[in-house]
């Protein structure tokens, strides 16, 4: 059984002007996502600026997300990554204790490791904490790519059940899908610009930044693709493409926060070293949003 089939939102973390966490804004965003029909909530991911918040803040945000999703069918995935295996284990144990549906574990960054080290890192967590794990492959941020054969090895573990692939490389995804055929292992896109081809290749959905802005439309696109309704999926994918592109005109989550600030949902505040984007980038994104919204999709 897949953890979810559809769209999961990588939750933005609203902040006050002084850089403190805007918990009320976070609750508003979680409610928007649940009301918008997403299948899962990813809390404490990259889009949630976990690199600049304390682990105790991560735990509080997970608690809020679990509380707000209670009674719904929406799954909760807890970010549990670290470049320190002991810290990742601490996060994984907390997620299991509190009742999260799964954990997302990024490859160790900065100190990095070898492919053998990746296998040891992931299996240490999976052996210790009995919770479904999603590998997170994002070499553009970490400097480490999970080799296809490493994925296939890890997929044999009963607790390692999926991967978020943010390589934006369909050929890589195809090779992973081919090597894990017949295994209880799923693939999710980590790139909003390749949702349609990724799902056509065999992916089960997306862990999305775009959902923060348009949860209903992102979920609809995924479901149309999963059901094989390609004409309607193509129409929606092409309409969303400019928004998806300009959401990454600056370092994520700078642009999503700019969009949400324009929508009156939260402030555009970020923690240093991230800073607000340029007026030129805002215009590109806002014009793309206006054009999409005029379509009424």
From TrEMBL:
GO cellular component: cytoplasm
SMART domains assigned to the protein according to its UniProt record, in alphabetical order: DHDPS
Keywords: Amino-acid biosynthesis, Cytoplasm, Diaminopimelate biosynthesis, Lyase, Lysine biosynthesis, Schiff base
Swiss-Prot/TrEMBL GO biological process terms: diaminopimelate biosynthetic process; lysine biosynthetic process via diaminopimelate
Assembly with partners or alone: Homotetramer; dimer of dimers.
Family assignment from sequence similarity: Belongs to the DapA family.
PANTHER family noted in UniProt: 4-HYDROXY-2-OXOGLUTARATE ALDOLASE, MITOCHONDRIAL, DIHYDRODIPICOLINATE SYNTHASE
Protein name as it appears in the record: 4-hydroxy-tetrahydrodipicolinate synthase
UniProt gene name: dapA
């Amino acid at each position: 059984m897949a953890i979810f089939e559809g769209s999961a939102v990588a939750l933005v973390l609203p902040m006050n002007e002084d850089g403190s966490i805007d918990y009320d804004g976070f609750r508003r965003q979680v409610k928007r996502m649940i009301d918008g029909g997403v299948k899962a909530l990813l809390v404490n991911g990259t889009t949630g600026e976990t690199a600049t918040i304390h682990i105790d803040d991560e735990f509080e945000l997970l608690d809020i997300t679990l509380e707000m999703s209670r009674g719904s069918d929406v799954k909760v995935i807890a970010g549990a990554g670290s470049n320190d295996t002991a810290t990742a284990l601490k996060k994984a144990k907390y997620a299991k204790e509190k009742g999260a549906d799964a954990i997302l574990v990024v490859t160790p960054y900065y100190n990095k490791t070898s492919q053998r080290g990746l296998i040891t890192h992931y299996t240490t967590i999976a052996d210790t904490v009995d919770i479904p794990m999603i590998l997170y492959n994002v070499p553009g941020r970490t400097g480490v790519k999970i080799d296809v054969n490493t994925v296939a090895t890890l997929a044999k573990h009963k607790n390692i059940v999926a991967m978020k692939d943010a390589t934006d490389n369909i050929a890589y995804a195809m090779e992973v899908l081919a090597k894990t055929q017949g295994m209880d292992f799923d693939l999710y896109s980590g790139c909003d610009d390749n949702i349609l081809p990724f799902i056509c290749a065999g992916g089960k959905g997306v862990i999305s930044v775009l959902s923060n802005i348009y949860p209903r439309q992102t979920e609809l696109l995924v479901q149309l693709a999963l059901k094989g309704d390609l004409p309607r999926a193509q129409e929606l994918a092409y309409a969303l493409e400019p928004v998806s592109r300009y959401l990454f005109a600056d370092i994520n989550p700078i642009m999503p926060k700019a969009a949400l600030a324009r929508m009156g949902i939260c402030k555009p505040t970020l923690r240093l070293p991230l800073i607000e984007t340029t007026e030129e980038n805002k215009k590109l994104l806002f014009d793309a949003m206006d054009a999409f919204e005029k379509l009424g999709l």
